[in-house]
Amino acid sequence: MGQIVSLSFHRFDSLRSRAWAFAMMGLARGAMARVPGIGFWKLCGSGTGEGFTPRPNLSVYAILATWPDAETARAQICGADIFARYRDRAAESWTVFLSPTSVRGKWSDRTPFAVSHDGPPPTALAALTRAAIRPAIAARFWRRVPDISSVIGADTGVLFKIGIGEVPWLHQVTFSIWPDTRAMAAFARTGPHAEAIEAVRRENWFREELYARFAIHSDIGTWNGVSPLKAAA
């Protein structure tokens, strides 16, 4: 199947575990770089809204990584020491494994995802949008974003959604899972989201941007007590 992308979410309930997770945004970098088989990776915090959001959520952190194949991805997520340390401290953890179907743009001057899905078109699919916001227009961007977050939060078609990011206010990621391309396109082409995309192009909001779609491969763990994929099914 080729490249697999893992996205791991960890929720920390106690003040001590949250302080540990916050510190690991810097301290975990060396251990992450040494994980066998890992390619591109990012440590991310999260926001309190349904997508891009300026308000941090200090209880949820995410790790994105790419792997050469599904076997390596699952073996390292389950067995590598750094991932085990996150699970041991977290109150709950969930990892979803993804197969890239399309990618456009760059992340940290790289194209991190290699399109490798060669099966039939997926039913459920995931979408990831990453943007590095130009500091000069950050205030204008954040005035528009709450409208987008409220709309995606109310959309009954989305199966899972979260906003994460590397740098608060400037480097933002939205990740969502949809039942099919029709539901995702209906959200993207109407309302505040469509207006924001038009403004991005017209006013050059982003210094760097990336858009990717994925087929769902599998998952491990739970979120809010269940596997989001099984709950959706």
Characterise this structure.
With 233 residues, the protein is an alpha+beta fold. It has one domain: 2-Layer Sandwich (Alpha-Beta Plaits), CATH 3.30.70. Helix content is 34%, strand content 35%. The chain contains 8 helices and 8 strands, in the order βααββααββαββααβα. The protein has helices at 15-27, 29-33, 70-79, 81-89, 138-154, 181-188, 191-203, 228-232; strands at 4-11, 41-47, 56-67, 92-105, 125-133, 160-167, 171-178, 206-221. Strands 1-3-2-6-7-5-8-4 form an 8-stranded antiparallel beta barrel, surrounded by 4 helices. A hairpin with a 3-residue loop joins strand 6 (160-167) and strand 7. The radius of gyration is 17 Å and the shape is globular.
SSE layout:
Elements: E1 4-11, H1 15-27, H2 29-33, E2 41-47, E3 56-67, H3 70-79, H4 81-89, E4 92-105, E5 125-133, H5 138-154, E6 160-167, E7 171-178, H6 181-188, H7 191-203, E8 206-221, H8 228-232
Antiparallel strand pairs: 1-3, 1-4, 2-3, 2-6, 4-8, 5-7, 5-8, 6-7
